[in-house]
Specification:
The protein contains 4 helices and no strands. By secondary structure, the protein is mainly alpha-helical. It is flat and about 100 Å long. It starts with a helix and ends in a 15-residue tail after the last helix. The mean pLDDT is 77.
């Protein structure tokens, strides 16, 4: 009986090793690709092209003189939107929605 137990143990361990080896061999290659000499030269030229010096503002950005902007004069809007009692009165009441876990069924 002891010989049969050890034979089954060897078979099970052998199958486990074969399955483990098959799983390990199926994993994707995660090693980093190596750059060719041409790719290394282009990477070096890109690094030399980038500078740390500040550049001028793009031409499509327009600066505005703050003296030319008219001050806000519509006090009626400010009065309405800052009146808390009026806002509470005109705010619609929230409807109670039925949760997915509530109700029949």
């Amino acid at each position: 009986m002891r010989a049969r137990y050890s034979a089954w143990l060897l078979i099970v361990v052998g199958i486990a090793l074969v399955v483990g080896a098959a799983l390990v061999s199926c994993t994707p290659d995660r090693s980093a690709p190596e750059l060719s000499d041409a790719e290394m030269e282009s990477a070096d030229s890109l690094e030399s092209a980038v500078s740390d010096e500040p550049t001028e503002a793009p031409p499509d950005i327009v600066t505005v003189d703050m003296d030319l902007i008219e001050p806000f004069t519509d006090q009626e809007c400010l009065d309405c939107h800052s009146n808390q009692t009026l806002l509470i009165e005109i705010t619609p009441e929230e409807e109670e929605t039925e949760s997915l876990s509530e109700g029949p069924g």
